[in-house]
Amino acid sequence: QVQPAESGGGLVQAGGSLRLSCAASGRTFSGYAMGWFRQAPGKERELITAVSWNGGSTYYADSVKGRFTISRDNAKNTVYLQMNSLKPEDTAVYYCVAGRNQYGSFWPVRAADFASWGQGTQVTVSS
């Protein structure tokens, strides 16, 4: 029902910033929580942040807390990830993922509650 498509990745130096965008197709985007995962080389996919369907609640993993900000614009069917103070360990493919349940409860936030994946966008942070 919700099909995300990520953009905005690229190559930046440590300490720099990027903003990722996720344009979602589907007529029920506003009813789903949205999240960002990332997968670094040799590591499993990690849920790093999520935002509730109405934008009222957010979740951040400890690895990005204080540096990354998730937001959404339901009128534009778009979710954003502002990434500041980037570190080499942030290098990964970043995925935008929609929640499984329309108007579902947000807490607790679990990776298993997200299901519709985009194709990913590469973020590379050089030292």
Mind explaining what this structure looks like?
The protein is mostly beta strands. The protein contains no helices and 11 strands. It has strands spanning 3-7, 10-13, 18-25, 34-39, 46-51, 58-60, 68-73, 78-83, 92-99, 114-117, 121-126. The strands form 2 sheets. Strands 2, 4, 5, 6, 9, 10 and 11 form a 7-stranded mixed β-sheet that branches. The chain has a 4-stranded antiparallel β-sheet with strand order 1-3-8-7, with no helix packed on it. The radius of gyration is 14 Å and the shape is globular.
Which secondary structure elements does this structure contain, and how are they paired or packed?
Elements: E1 3-7, E2 10-13, E3 18-25, E4 34-39, E5 46-51, E6 58-60, E7 68-73, E8 78-83, E9 92-99, E10 114-117, E11 121-126
Quickly list its features.
127 residues, mainly beta, 7-stranded mixed β-sheet, 4-stranded antiparallel β-sheet, 49% strand
The Rg value, from CA coordinates, equals: 14 Å
Name the poorly predicted regions. none
Largest sheet: 7 strands, mixed
Number of helices: 0
Oligomer: single chain
Report the sheet-strand fraction: over 45%
Binned, the helix content reads under 10%
- Count every beta strand, where a strand is a DSSP E run of 2 or more residues: 11
Q: What would the principal axes of the Cα set say about the shape? A: globular
Counting helices, strands and paired strands, the structural category is mainly beta
What is the first-to-last residue Cα distance?
Answer: 40 Å
Mean pLDDT, nearest integer? 94
How would you spell out the order of helices and strands? Answer: EEEEEEEEEEE
